[in-house]
């Protein structure tokens, strides 16, 4: 236990600017009132339906774990790799983003722009001149120019605090294209048509609710000469002044004048067209309004994860495998995979039945089930055994199994003795 003097000597407070707390540096570099590295949607997409759809999809994709792992000869998961790349995918991608925020940034930028670049920004060796290197940090960037072997990327520089454009070779940058590009990013795609129709509908609503009266005044004389037109213009301005200057918007007219109001609701099929395009877009994306509201059933969620989330995750993971893992690493059965927790969408009243089936069929141990539901592991050694606990085992059988597990040579010796005994009777 440190003494009071030692605690006072090593104490630190963020709000003290005197000893023993050292003063901060005064040159902070580029300062901004908003976060400069945060992804921002295009103006046409930010105020449309794509903002809610992209946000929902990116949150669901980032909730699935992406890991750098090692597999066996059959491609089955063995262990998680202790590498800098795995730390970027599971813990922190750079100084500003956690791994989950980084994946959400990838998906948001990809759905908005159609393609996104994942650039290693911190490596132990120069990736331009070396093919094997360790990745310490990664960031997303917008591709502004394409060349046969290189791309120009608009990337956030965490040293200067500004976004800069730099050229990178394609072999070191993971270029992820939106699998739903034809539906969302093509100039005449379903989403673009929906955005245009909604803009027309907004313009019509703004025009109808602009406060204009849209009146036609029929005067008791013909307007054919310049004098009569000036007289009609003077009469129109007089009525405008009466309406503008009146407390309740009341004006008077002559008994021979006739006024017709035109601001009636127009009957068109624009709203029906918007609803049809919205339903068509939801069907092509494999999403529904219930998913956006959080009231979707199990079948709708399964369809959504298989048709929308899985293709996006596969596109990201496959591109990372090609660019961030060398041929030697792949020959050593290293790969990048995503793992979705199947218990997240299961109601709590079904957990007990599922846990019984998994433990009874020797798929999960009791402690693994306890970890899934958020409980600490049990100290009972039988809780880590992968066996059906509904079958009773006598003490002798349990002792024999434990002895055979600890001393596998005894099994071989017993089998040899059995063979010798059998040969005496043959």
Coarse shape: elongated
Can you tell me the residue ranges where pLDDT is under 50 for at least 5 consecutive residues?
422-426
Which percent range fits the helix content? 40-55%
Report the count of strand segments.
10
**Terminal-residue CA separation:** 77 Å
Residue fraction in strands:
15-25%
Biggest sheet descriptor:
5 strands, antiparallel
H-E order: HHHEEHHEEEEEHHEHEHHHHEHHHH
Mean pLDDT figure: 81
**Which class do the helix and strand fractions yield?**
alpha+beta
Features:
alpha+beta, 5-stranded antiparallel sheet, elongated, disordered C terminus, 426 residues, 45% helix, 10 strands, 3-stranded antiparallel sheet
Explained architecture:
The protein is α+β, with helices and mostly antiparallel strands and 426 residues long. Among the domains are: 209 residues, no CATH class; 30 residues, no CATH class. It contains 16 helices and 10 strands. A hairpin with a 3-residue loop joins strand 4 and strand 5. Helix 3 runs antiparallel to helix 5, helix 7 packs antiparallel against helix 9 and helix 15 crosses helix 16. The C terminus is likely disordered.
Concise overview:
The protein is an alpha+beta fold. Helices cover 45% and strands 15% of the residues. Among the domains are: 37-202 and 298-340, no CATH class; 395-424, no CATH class.
Give the arrangement of secondary structure elements.
Blueprint: H1 4-9, H2 43-46, H3 49-62, E1 65-71, E2 77-80, H4 84-90, H5 99-113, E3 115-123, E4 135-146, E5 150-157, E6 162-169, E7 174-177, H6 181-184, H7 190-208, E8 215-218, H8 226-245, E9 258-261, H9 270-285, H10 289-293, H11 298-324, H12 327-331, E10 334-339, H13 348-360, H14 366-372, H15 395-406, H16 408-424
Antiparallel strand pairs: 1-2, 1-10, 3-4, 3-7, 4-5, 5-6, 8-9
